[in-house]
Amino acid sequence: MTPSAGVLLTDLYQLTMVQAYVEQGMVEQAVFEFFVRRLPPRRNFLMAAGLEQVLEFLEHLRLTADEIDWLASTGRFSQTCLDYLRRLHFTGDVQAMPEGTVFFPHEPILRVIAPLPLAQLVETRVMNLLNFQCLIASKAARSVLAAEGKPLIDFGLRRAHGAEAGLFAARASYLAGFAGSATVLAGRQYGIPLYGTMAHSFVQAHKDEVTAFEHFALAQPDNVVLLIDTYDTEAAAHKVVKLAQTLKTKGIIVKGVRLDSGDLAQHAWNVRKILDEGGMREAKILASGNLDEYRLRDLAASGAPIDSFAVGTAMTTSSDAPSLDCAYKLQEYAGRPCRKRSEGKATWPGRKQVYRHGDGPEGRLAYDIVTTLEDRQEGRPLLQEVMKQGRRVGSPESLSEIRARAQRELASLPAPLQSLDEAPPFDVRISPTLQDLAKTVDERG
Description:
The chain has 445 residues and is of the alpha/beta class. It is 40% helix and 18% strand. It starts with 11 loop residues before the first helix and ends with a helix. Pathway: Cofactor biosynthesis; NAD(+) biosynthesis; nicotinate D-ribonucleotide from nicotinate: step 1/1. GO terms for molecular function: nicotinamide phosphoribosyltransferase activity; nicotinate phosphoribosyltransferase activity. Residues 152-329 form the Nicotinate/nicotinamide phosphoribosyltransferase domain.
């Protein structure tokens, strides 16, 4: 088991609470729900992602003998607690929104039902997995909308906040609609299409650009996309045109060029003209270099002849909104609905369902209703059972299925929510039944 998959990748207080619960016999069923309190600035929606990794974590929830021994050596934990942890495995139920579903504040996207110590213990890792992938999938979805149908590639691994973050960013961006990733392990692990060109250092290592281009073409005859901005972009484009004729006699076709700096729109216009006049009308132009959804929108609006984009740091780190105001809160214990009433952080109690109504203009989403699980409503229920008594319900979804859902979900958003500009909030209604339950819980004290 890798360290990132283990139970000890958690906050200390999760373990100390487990000890207190176990020693006091507080082991009845608890219900926790994960939700987002508010959207980041200028975000109009979020996209669910990371469920697959949560289920994998829960399925393999174990502590090794070495880990138990280490916990014992700290002197923090009683023998009762250590014995409980030694027998630990996930026996609970999970309901969740499928990955690729768009969601909004106050809507639970995942519910865990398990004995209290167990449901509490998994909080940190569940939040860690969902927060990051929902964040990246949501930003990637905005980029997809901004690019107006042009393919996007994830180039962000080298500046990701760690190896796992880079890998999960490749997955989250792909399920949200990216065409692929440069991250090789994402290709092996998730079957994500791989894309890549060449580095400036490759060009610099050669005495001249033409030799560098030729050597790369000979090494990668089926993937000749040449980086042309190391020195002089337009001059390099002319060199590519000349070299392409020589390569063609060897059966090698230059598929495209990559622009990575400067005024990308103007360079694209200039390079497109050079390529076309040189008989390379089929060669594509790939643009990269500090791109985010706003630059994608501007480049798309400019009409620049760019065929695809590579998006890196800004997306993989979600630089404009690096975290979500998310929570994993106790909603019920031993059959008793619970509610947090902290100022600015109040929660809605009990087990909930979200019903989606799609009767808006042109079949777009109209509103959602959040209500108690027992209060059945019209509309499409969003939370589905995905784990029962510690076992998955059904087979894992393929990424292609999730991508198709994400595409449908984005298409169903009202036009203002698809915009990068801040729009009036989507209509999320709290049912009278849920409001009444909250009032009852408050009166109970």
